[in-house]
Design a protein that fits this description.
The complex is a heterodimer of chains A (about 300) and B (about 375).
Chain A (H helix, E strand, L loop, with lengths): L5 E12 L2 E12 L3 E5 L6 H8 L7 E6 L2 E2 L4 H7 E4 L11 H11 L4 H15 L14 H12 L6 E5 L7 H16 L3 E6 L10 E6 L2 E6 L1 H8 L3 E7 L2 H10 L4 E4 L2 E6 L2 H14 L4 E7 L3 H11 L1
Helix pairs in contact in A: 3-4, 3-5, 4-5, 7-10
Chain B lengths: L2 H17 L1 H21 L7 E7 L4 H12 L3 E6 L3 H10 L4 E5 L3 H6 L7 E4 L4 H22 L22 H32 L1 H5 L6 H30 L8 H26 L2 H18 L12 H7 L3 H15 L3 H25 L6
Parallel strand pairs in B: 1-2, 1-3
Antiparallel strand pairs in B: 3-4
Helix pairs in contact in B: 1-9, 2-7, 2-9, 7-9, 7-10, 7-11, 7-13, 9-10, 9-14, 10-11, 10-13, 10-14, 13-14
Classes of the chains: A alpha/beta (about 300), B mainly alpha (about 375).
Chain lengths: ~300, ~375
């Protein structure tokens, strides 16, 4: 990747809080115009990383640039070219929709000539046209989320950082939100987004999986599936999921609970399927279905964690 | 520094202040209430001292003396008693603060020109009242002496007091101007102490510090609307003091408000500094309450005269901005003095404000610690 095409780059980035290592020497590169997904469970170090990139938190070690500016020395320059949306959709709850937009318009110094158009754009994008006088705290979460995004990108920044933008938002709103993100990326904006919803990973151009402060994989969603899932996944539907998991683990078969079923990781589905059925039934557990499935990114993640 | 960003910040704060009815009510009702309550509660004027009289003499002379006590507004005779034991009872129970005993031979001694002792017992548990009562009693006895002598005794020194600035020696006139300083210190510190800590509590600060806004713009933007509220408060307090409580305002009103504005600026910067340091609303308001009320109440010279304090404590008072404002208020209200006399105070208030402002800007860091 040539230097000019890079929006975000960090090397050995590290942050500790006392003895706790929140981010453990991570390195990554994000290309301009890319949707870069940062995936991991709660507490994995996603927010800490994003805060360091936005110049809100001083790294304990490592180096990095955002939009060509040094994250250690040029935090305030970074703040001019980014939009950041924190986990809490930080709107002023006692202000109306329009007052929130006006406030950020002033703070980002949106030129007077553009202000009207930007406001209309945010209202439309958030689905709040005609509700500009509604007080922010009365809005449903989905609307708050889109209004917060609108406020964070009023000044049309080239790079945006979104920290768990979809948490607590209903599935329809989430889908709409992602199509919005795609529109922005199509317009050339770089999007760095964290999420703990594995199913959202497929919306991203590229992904990094973070676990306990470490990046355990970095690739496109397809590559992740291909390279890290050389083994097969069998979905096993049984009556007593918990007992079944124990039985299979004793028999030396890697598996984990996914909803009401088990996902077993095996070398060859054709050989393993009858074996699993036999093992379970001999322990008195009724097996309804054993089926080879396309691995989801969640399977990939679980596999990678077991390796890590 | 961007005027546009300061304006956006100030407008947003202004809207938030306006919508927060409770704080707004507090901003105006509290000073008014405090002023009026304190005006009546805190008084060092001692009158109607509860007094019992044990008249053993029961002569026209002794009745004359008792009448002099009863007629003065300083004493109020609650009972005539017949034994020493009654004195114990009245003083112990607090039904009387002073007991006057006129001995059997009081009028006889007076008539033959011998010293006639008068026995007075004073409840010293309230030392201020006791001292003042003692003075009044001595005064009445002296006047009674003059009256009894057929030939007035010419005193060696003819003392004629004249009290300047507060001729009636009303403690209200001396307390209320200072009280305005105390109330303003507390109210503005409390109001603005929530301004930054609230944003940390609600998560909006994290958003705000991710923008290109500069600390100085946040500080000015937040100060401006609170300054308007604080200034309106000051005007209201001065109006209550002069129109309702009838405290004379003899000096220049524009000068008074100019200095108030300077004091207000420093006080607001101080409250903001607390808010920046505390990072949560509860801590911020508690620290604001303690650090604004105690020093301004105890160390400003509002009640307790600074020159009577131990040297170390006197040193501390130089750091209390209310001290300078109390001097200015008392000076302008009662003595009608202006800048030429209060120069030091005004300059210090301005320097204090500027220093705290710079400190607040420096402490407002756009990082999560």
């Amino acid at each position: 990747m040539d230097r000019a095409g890079i929006a975000v780059e960090v090397k050995d980035l590290r942050r500790t809080f006392g003895d706790f290592v929140a981010v453990d020497n991570i390195s990554l590169e994000v290309a301009k115009g890319e949707i870069f997904g940062f995936l991991g469970p709660n507490g994995a170090g996603k927010s800490t990383t994003i805060r360091m990139l936005c110049g809100l938190l001083m790294p304990s070690g490592g180096i990095g640039t955002v939009g060509g500016y040094d994250i250690l020395k040029e935090a305030e320059s970074i703040k001019r070219i980014i939009g950041y949306m924190s986990q809490r959709f930080s709107l002023y709850e006692d202000l109306t929709v329009e007052e929130n937009i006006n406030f950020y318009g002033g703070i980002y110094r949106v030129p007077r000539s553009k202000r009207g158009a930007r406001k209309t754009w945010v209202l439309e994008m958030a689905g709040l046209t005609g509700r500009k006088d509604a007080v922010a705290k009365t809005l449903a979460t989905g609307f708050k989320q889109r209004l917060a995004l609108g406020c964070a990108i009023l000044h049309e920044p080239p790079i945006i950082f979104l920290d768990e933008p979809t948490s607590g938002v209903d599935p329809v709103s989430r889908r709409n939100f992602w199509s919005l993100i795609h529109d922005l990326a199509d317009g050339g904006t770089t999007v760095f987004v964290t999420t703990h919803y594995m199913e959202e990973a497929d919306y991203c151009d590229r992904l990094a999986l973070i676990y306990r402060g470490k990046i355990i994989a970095e690739a496109t969603p397809m590559e992740l599936r291909r390279t890290h899932m050389k083994r097969d996944i069998l979905e096993v539907e049984v009556d007593r999921v918990g007992d079944a998991m124990e039985v299979l683990l004793k028999a030396g078969i890697e598996n984990a609970i996914f909803g009401s079923a088990l996902h077993a990781t095996v070398d060859d589905a054709g050989i393993a399927a009858p074996e699993i059925r036999r093992t379970l039934e001999s322990s008195g557990i009724a097996v309804k279905r054993v089926e080879k499935i396309v691995p989801s990114l969640e399977d990939v993640f679980v596999t990678l964690i077991e390796v890590a | 520094m961007s005027f546009l960003r300061i304006k956006a910040m100030a407008r947003k704060e202004w809207i938030q202040i306006r919508r927060d009815r409770l704080s707004l009510a507090m901003a105006f009702a509290l000073p008014a209430m405090l002023l009026i309550i304190y005006a009546y509660a805190i008084t060092f004027d001692v009158d109607n001292i509860l007094t019992v009289v044990y008249d053993q003499d029961k002569s026209s002379t002794s009745r004359d003396l008792i009448a002099r006590f009863a007629e003065s507004k300083y004493f109020s005779i609650v009972a005539s008693i017949d034994s020493y034991r009654d004195i114990d009872q009245y003083l112990d129970s607090g039904k009387a603060k002073v007991a006057i005993t006129i001995p059997f031979d009081f009028s006889k001694n007076l008539h033959i020109g011998r010293p006639a002792p008068l026995e007075v017992v004073i409840d010293g548990s309230e030392s201020n009242t006791a001292t003042i009562a003692q003075g009044y009693i001595a005064g009445i006895a002296e006047a009674f002496n003059q009256h009894q002598s057929i030939v007035p005794v010419a005193p060696v020194i003819d003392l004629r007091n004249r009290v300047w600035y507060n001729p009636e020696l009303k403690s209200r006139n001396f307390l209320i101007p200072g009280l305005i300083a105390i109330i303003m210190s507390v109210i503005i510190a409390l109001l603005i102490s929530l301004a930054v800590s609230r944003e940390w509590d609600r998560g909006t600060m994290e958003q705000l510090i991710s923008t290109p806004v500069k600390p100085v713009e946040i500080v000015i933007g937040k100060l401006a609307p609170y300054f308007v509220v604080g200034f309106a408060d000051t005007v209201m307090s001065v109006l209550i003091a002069t129109l309702v409580l009838r405290v004379p305002l003899r000096g220049s009103v524009p000068f008074l408000f100019l200095v108030s504005a300077i004091f207000l600026f420093g006080g607001l910067c101080f409250g903001l500094l607390i808010s920046i340091g505390a990072r949560n609303q509860l801590t911020a308001s508690q620290i604001a309450m303690l650090t604004s009320f105690l020093p301004s109440f105890l160390l400003s010279g509002f009640v307790f005269t600074i020159s009577n304090m131990p040297a170390v404590l006197q040193g501390f008072t130089y750091l209390v901005s209310a001290r300078y404002f109390v001097s200015v208020l008392k000076g302008v209200f009662l003595k009608a003095v202006g800048f030429h006399v209060l120069e030091t105070e005004v300059i210090f208030l301005a320097l204090y404000g500027l220093a705290i402002f710079l400190l607040a800007v420096k402490r407002l860091r756009k990082r999560i610690e």
